[in-house]
Structures are given as C-alpha cells and as structure tokens.
Amino acid sequence: MNFSDKGFSLLGRILIAETCFLVYNKTQDIRFIISEAGRKEGENMGTFANTETAREYFKNDLFATNAGMQLDELTEDTAVCSVAITSALQNANGGVMGGAIFTLADLALAAVANNIHSPSVASQVSINYLSAPKGTRMIAKAKAIKKGRTTTVIQVDVTDDTGRDVAMFVGTAFKL
C-alpha cells in the first residue's frame, strides 16, 4: 500500500512501515514456534511440526478424506499419500475413476506445497494416466522439484501396491 497518497506524514509512514514489519516478524516467529512444537530431534520440517499435525490439517480436505485418502508420510519436501481401491472409486466400466487417481495425486501435491508455503493452492497441473491399477491400494509419492519464493513445482508418481505405474502428475502450487 502506498501511504504517501493517503495524507500520512513521513514520520507516520515510517511508523506504519515499522508496525507492519513487527507484525510480519511476529507472524513468522509464531509460525516458527508452531513448526517447532512436537518436532523430534533432528527432524527438519516446514509449516507442519510433524506428519500428525499435517494429517489433522488435511482432515479438512473432505473430498479426499471422504474417499478414504490419507497422508502417510511427510518430510520437508516429500509426501506419500494412499487410498484403498474400493468399489467407491470405480467408474462405470469397473476400473478406478480417473478423478480418484487425480485426487490422490492432488492431495500429495497439497501436502508438500503447504508444508513449504502455507497456504498454497494448485495453479496448474498435468496428469498422464499410464495404466489401470491392479492391486488393492494406490500410493502417490510427491517430491518438490523447484521451491521458489511464491511457487513450487511438484512431481507426483502414482503407483499401486504391486509396483505398477498408474499416473505421472506434475503441478505448480502458488503461495497465497
């Protein structure tokens, strides 16, 4: 915001800038304190103190959680999510719905992105469906490829529990 055109004096503008800086620093300090709470010795994480804290956060992602998807692992720049392959995920042909595969990959992307920059949302994604899953569970492994100041590029590989490649997903997340 440009305060000079709002009738503020130079001293007023300096005080406003200092106050904004202090508030910004307090927010960063609070975020750091929250991030440090519950951290195990040697564990290096981002926004979330640990995987359990992230699971609590993503319980609010009702579309994915109502479909049975879960966050299994989270590190500073990786995440693993999974879902049991059930009839609830089937399409009209009896296979797994492409949207279910996409949602699992998107949840893994969201976990990594929000651990790096919170809050973040996907701004662009691309998915290539490689094969139909044959196992009883799908697993999405996400890894940050590029961590920028406001955007993060994340690759997600989706497999089933037999090791079969199901999909390759690449997304860009934007820090709000």
Give a nutshell description of this structure:
With 176 residues, the protein is of the alpha+beta class. The protein has 4 helices and 6 strands, in the order H-H-H-E-E-H-E-E-E-E. The chain is globular and about 45 Å long.
What is the total number of structural domains?
2
Taking strands numbered 1, 2, ... along the chain, how are they ordered across the largest sheet?
Answer: 1-2-4-5-6-3
SSE series: HHHEEHEEEE
Tell me about the largest β-sheet.
6 strands, antiparallel
Provide the CATH superfamily of the largest domain.
Answer: Hotdog Thioesterase
In total, how many beta strands? 6
Fraction of residues in β-strands:
25-35%
Low-confidence stretches: 1-6, 10-44
CATH top-level class of the largest domain: Alpha Beta
Number of helices: 4
State the share of residues found in helices, binned by percent: 25-40%
Q: Architecture of the largest domain, according to CATH?
A: Roll
Terminal CA distance reads: 17 Å
- Average pLDDT number: 83
**Computed CA radius of gyration, to the nearest angstrom:** 20 Å
What is CATH's topology name of the largest domain?
Thiol Ester Dehydrase, Chain A
Classification by helices and strands: alpha+beta
